[in-house]
């Protein structure tokens, strides 16, 4: 996948086959500006699942789900789609674009929320706006799923501890009969306040190669 | 050994301070001698000799030597010398100790004076102390010892500081910024060296400076010495200003990695200064040499690091010497690298960074603490000594002050640093995600302090080859003083003034750790999906390789399987447990969390609605808390046991050795707690019945006879009827029994056992023994014996009884 300095995706050379497109990702929406040569592209879960490089990834299922999650496709509804086209694919990918060269504080905050929202959605499997203890436990279990039995035993404890931490930082002291339902997105922002996701969650597509672009024509 | 050799020359003449101390000690000893001798009433010459020596310390040694010979050859005539003095015998170690003592006391002193350390950096104060000590020695008419000898510096003082830096190098930020750091370290240092050297040569050629005899190559050599940022000075200053992690790692990383450049440039120019001509071939050789020096240094370090990790795999039975391996292997790495003129600093950094994750997994927690403390102690003493010696050396050295040369050096250093940083940042920012702002650039440029490495390198120069050596040394010292005093003292107010982001003191939370790991895997996955083999892909590959092969070889036992997140969690839990015990508590559940909120608050409510409706408080909240509290404190007590002392092992750390034990117990405790919560949900008996329903039911469940009897007279005892009607009661009873028995075994308390025994007796009581039961409890005297039996034991005071087992 090639991205030039204006964050235009120029070429996607994927494990899924060769797609060539020029797409301008502006800050809000994906606009297809120019198409060099476009293979008809539709991608289903099976296609993504067939990528062998993903086999060792503990988050495999969650990552694949993220591509088919309507919330990540900028449709303000919950649920999943069965097949995504190229634009949808790029929309998901656009969550991983690096911050632009000069960015105002406001834009940075927006970018931050957007990226955190993506992660939040990955945890919030039933799309009800909160990460419940169950969901968090499952997320940590997945994360440790390659660690064998030790992982599974500890995952629950870790998720519990993490949940306790969220509850105590966001709610302060709680009475024994109070009940913390789960992490809302605001809580999520609060606990990851010091976690500079806007600089961490990006993929460096720097191998800009205009020669390839011309070949694609 | 090297300490001895290195220190021998500087200690040829004793310092004033030592002499004073020595005199005092000697007088005390001699007084003792005279007294003893007087008591033995055998006046002899050697004692008088010694006393004479004491009065005139210049004759001291001769006197002692004389008495020695005397006793040796004619000892039949003389009494056995009860006390003799031989200072030479202990001179070297004694003087080393004195210096170290002086350094430590100074360090101690600065922190006792309030507010002083917040205004002036410690390094400045230490240099001043060095100047004073040097001045005193000079006043005493002695020759100032050449304390900052190059051998001493490079073989003894520098390694601890670098090892400390390398071992505790924050790998993640370092690797994330490695490009920028290398750029500053390699290109920046080269630029500085040539810019300063070249312009200095140009200035020297100007008429009227009387410096025309300075040639180009010595100028370049001088430039290469003066251009390197010094890790010792940087560490000393940056530690106090608490700058944010990014800037710290940039400046500090640069100071570490530029060593290779400095070493190569130094040797190149030194070589060519003798030869004269420089051909393009030499330049190529220089580049190759640079690669060999840096990569070779890293390779040597890595090899020793792996060896250390491998050795630490087998130390589980001799824990005491574990820390030693860390130090010895690192020192060997440094020496081996120096042997081939490779970059010793890079070797040490590589060694420390490579061995750390594996060694930490292998060695015990105590050994880890030891390593940490020793490294910190050595490095801070070394640092103190270096700065003091710098001051002493300033007083000692012959100086050739040349206004032009010195001022041009200082100005050029500043200018080249600023130009270099700004220029390089311009290039680097094109590739960086987090751009370096103007403020950042300013701090990076301003933080480029020079230090003792430059001085030692200058000191190493050959007098015959470089007639300007003295002038060079003076200029180097001035530059060091300028950077350390002016820049070092002003950088703190400037950081405050510019509002540069400071280091966040907050500890890392577990949520952040989870998301760090999460993000790593997520990004790797996305890269894999779009078929782009970027950073994350390779990092993941490396991690997997590390886990699969290297960790297996280098880490003993099962711990190599432990993923980072779990290790982090355990570490956190462990820390919390220690804090908990240190605070003398036992009140709070040692969970990994600040326990303002208990697990109860976030536990999903699993109760079926029917039960929840009926849920009546079995225990009041307060009592439940109380019980938990007691349970916990007792569980913790059991893990403190005594061990016998062994010379080769330290007294067992109850936290460490009992750690697994402790985890198990904690697990059990959590289970217990859960059970209790469940129980309070299940045990849904009308509130506060006059006698203990649970106990009654316990009896009922285990005594069919009683069951039968109750049935016969059910009308008279309404409470029991209710119990029977409840379908869950047998379940809950079993649970209670199990629970209380578990509690009993866990606690092993007298009362507890007593209570259980009582219970057992109650269960086994035969009808004939019912008469023994206290009368007070038999309020229903007309009841049949069976029912009496089952009510008798718990009695009306059952509530207390139920509590009792939990009381300590």
From TrEMBL, chain A:
Chief localization: other
Keywords: Calcium, Cell membrane, Cell projection, Cytoplasm, Differentiation, Lipoprotein, Membrane, Metal-binding, Myristate, Nucleus, Protein kinase inhibitor
All copies of domain EF-hand, residue ranges: 111-146
Subcellular location: Cell projection, Lamellipodium; Cell projection, Ruffle membrane; Cytoplasm; Membrane
GO biological process, one term: cell differentiation
Bilayer-crossing regions: none
GO molecular function: calcium ion binding; protein kinase inhibitor activity
Membrane topology: Lipid-anchor
InterPro entries according to UniProt: CHP3 (IPR052490), EF-hand-dom_pair (IPR011992), EF_Hand_1_Ca_BS (IPR018247), EF_hand_dom (IPR002048)
CC annotations in GO: cytoplasm; lamellipodium; nucleus; ruffle membrane
Protein family per UniProt: Belongs to the calcineurin regulatory subunit family. CHP subfamily.
Xref: PANTHER family: CALCINEURIN B HOMOLOGOUS PROTEIN 3 (PTHR46823)
Stated name of the protein: Calcineurin B homologous protein 3
Source organism: Oncorhynchus kisutch (Coho salmon)
TrEMBL record, chain B:
Regions annotated as coiled coil: none
GO molecular function: calmodulin binding; potassium:proton antiporter activity; sodium:proton antiporter activity
GO biological process, one term: regulation of intracellular pH
GO (cellular component) term, any one: basolateral plasma membrane
Keyword Protein biosynthesis attached: no
Domain of life (superkingdom): Eukaryota
Subcellular location: Basolateral cell membrane
Transmembrane segments: 21-40, 120-140, 152-169, 181-203, 215-237, 249-269, 284-310, 340-359, 380-397, 403-429, 441-460, 472-495
Keywords annotated in UniProt: Antiport, Calmodulin-binding, Cell membrane, Glycoprotein, Ion transport, Lipoprotein, Membrane, Palmitate, Phosphoprotein, Sodium, Sodium transport, Transmembrane, Transmembrane helix, Transport, Ubl conjugation
Signal peptide: none
Compositionally biased residues, Basic and acidic residues: 54-67, 772-781
Transmembrane helix as UniProt keyword: yes
Sodium/hydrogen exchanger regulatory region domain residues: 592-695
Membrane topology: Multi-pass membrane protein
Cation/H+ exchanger transmembrane domain: residues covered: 101-495
Start and end residues of each stretch annotated as Disordered: 46-67, 742-808
Catalytic activity: Na(+)(in) + H(+)(out) = Na(+)(out) + H(+)(in); Li(+)(in) + Na(+)(out) = Li(+)(out) + Na(+)(in); Li(+)(out) + H(+)(in) = Li(+)(in) + H(+)(out)
Pfam families: Na_H_Exchanger, NEXCaM_BD
Main location class: membrane
Biased composition (Acidic residues): 798-808
The family this protein is said to belong to: Belongs to the monovalent cation:proton antiporter 1 (CPA1) transporter (TC 2.A.36) family.
Protein's name according to its UniProt entry: Sodium/hydrogen exchanger
Gene this protein is translated from: SLC9A1
